[in-house]
Design goal:
alpha+beta; 2 domains; 3-stranded antiparallel sheet; 2 helices; 3 strands; 24% strand
């Protein structure tokens, strides 16, 4: 069995939180019906004071995402092993084979 991770998806919420509650609830209900789980706020940019709202949901990663993540993990492991080997060779050269 593969160990799939939960992937968080987000999309900008263009709805407004001003006006009649029925309108706000209707807009949010349609987003809920599409599978969005929650809403969170963010900022337009690092230097902005304008808030933006984002819908989010979670899903299991796809086969392609899983394969890509495993490839990246293997690359990182190989890089770490290469760095350890280089450090070993450097120390071996410095201290000899004692």
């Amino acid at each position: 069995m593969t160990n799939r991770i939960q992937v968080k998806e987000t999309k900008r919420y263009w709805g407004d939180f001003e006006g009649p509650l029925e309108s706000i609830i209707s807009s949010l209900q349609s987003e809920l019906d599409e599978g969005w789980e929650g809403i969170e706020e963010g900022w337009e940019s690092a230097y902005s004071t304008n808030k933006e709202y984002y819908l989010y949901s979670h899903r299991l990663e796809t086969d392609l995402e899983y394969a890509n993540r495993m490839k990246e993990l293997e690359k990182k492991k190989a890089q770490a092993k290469k760095q350890r080997r280089e450090e070993y060779e450097k120390l071996k050269k410095e201290f000899g084979n004692t």
